[in-house]
Each structure stands twice: as C-alpha cells, then as structure tokens.
Amino acid sequence: MQVHAEYTLYGHCFLLRDLSMGAEKIRLFLDQDSGMRAAVLGAFAERVTERTADAFYLRINKDMTDDEHRHALKVSA
After folding, report:
1. Which pTM value belongs to this model?
2. Domain extent at residue 44
3. Which of 11, 46, 15, 16 is nearest to 29 (CA)?
4. Closest Cα to residue 28, out of 19, 11, 41, 18?
5. Within 13 Å of residue 22, how many CA atoms lie on the same side as its CB?
6. Measured between alpha carbons, how far is 36 from 31 in angstroms, rounded to an integer?
7. Residue 63: enclosing H or E segment and its boundaries?
8. 38 phi-psi bin (left φ>0, alpha ψ -120 to 50, beta other)
9. Which residue from 41, 58, 67, 76 has the highest number of Cβ atoms inside 10 Å of its Cβ?
10. Residue 36 and residue 32: Cα distance in Å, rounded?
11. Which of 68, 66, 63 shows the shortest CA–CA distance to 76?
C-alpha cells in the first residue's frame, strides 16, 4: 500500500496534537516546506491561536562540516 506524503504528514501532525494534549506549551520546529506548514497549522491552529503552541521555520546548512557547525554555534552565542 502506498500513501501520499501529504496524508502521512497530516496524520503525524494530528497524532502529535493528540499525544501533546496534556502539555502546557509545545514548540514545533519545521523545515521551510509549505506542506509541513499546512499540516502543522491544520492540526495545531487552535493551540497556536491560544498561544499554547509555537511553530518556527528553520533553515539548516547541510553542507557545513561538524567543526563549522560548532564554530557557528559558538559565534552566535
């Protein structure tokens, strides 16, 4: 059986919503992907509106070496 990636994404987001019901506040860190954004906002819209959930876009430089990552982290702190 094959399932469209979008359905899988939505399913995971709604499962995360259900599993995190008891959490006072949650933070979601997302790739810059419109499908992921739509799935997260679809599942967590009410909590985002209530300010009990935050969603952040991240951008990661996947070409950096571990040493470059460590140096960038040190410089940013």
Report:
1. 0.75
2. 5-76
3. 16
4. 41
5. 1
6. 7
7. none
8. alpha
9. 41
10. 8
11. 68
Q: Which residues of 41-64 are buried (b: 16+ CB within 10 A; e: fewer)?
A: eebbeebbeeeebebeeeeeeeee
Domain count, the chain: 1
Tell me which residue of 58, 47, 50, 51 sits closest to 19, measured CA to CA: 47
Per-residue pLDDT of the chain (77 residues; tens, 9 = 90+): 898 989 999 999 999 999 999 999 999 999 889 999 999 999 999 999 999 999 999 888 888 999 998 998 899 87
List the structure tokens of 62: 């996947």
